[in-house]
Amino acid sequence: MSVHGAINMRGLVERMRIRILQTSASGVYRDPAIHPQVESYTGNICRIGTRACDDEDERRAETLFFGHHRQFKLEVKISRIFSSYGERMHPNDGRVLSNFILQTRPAEAINIYGDGQQTQPFCDAEDLAQGLLKLMRLEAFVTGRIDLRNPTEFTLLALAEHVAKRIGSMPTIARSSLPQDDPRRRRPDSGTARSVLGWQPSLALEHALQVTIRFLDELLPR
User: Model-level pTM?
Assistant: First the structure.
């Protein structure tokens, strides 16, 4: 950007007092070598792996927003979101929970990658929205990065069994090989969200399952 353009950008930001939320994701950690993960952890990413484009895009976006924060005083709020679910999620967005639910229609096999002992923390969308609102209401100097997620880890095998029990069907469990660079354990430290935002999730996975299954049932009748 030219000097003239930079001056114009700074003037625009100052006049409009823009506050921007950048929703990053847990892909910045990929297959973490430390557990749980803290926001300062730089991740364990294979730069030429099959997931590299997605991971590097998330990291690059954070870099760009922090660059604009430093150069133009742009007021940014950055949150890393972990496995959120709930009503109105797209049935074909590729998330593990919606995949498991749809694979029970009819009682097909639920597909598990690897041994199913990989863990993820799942966060209800209602809780997530409250966390994002709290972040956006903080003072300008608070930028994040703040991880928002439920502190409870679930293995994917336990999640598949939980979905099957909730739906009332007993599909078989099919197994596929574990994809390259797929995270084996993922649970960020929640201390920053508690201390800075005064936020912690209040809704259990059971609630997310109930509303998500009901929504998908109404959207895609059996």
Answer: 0.85
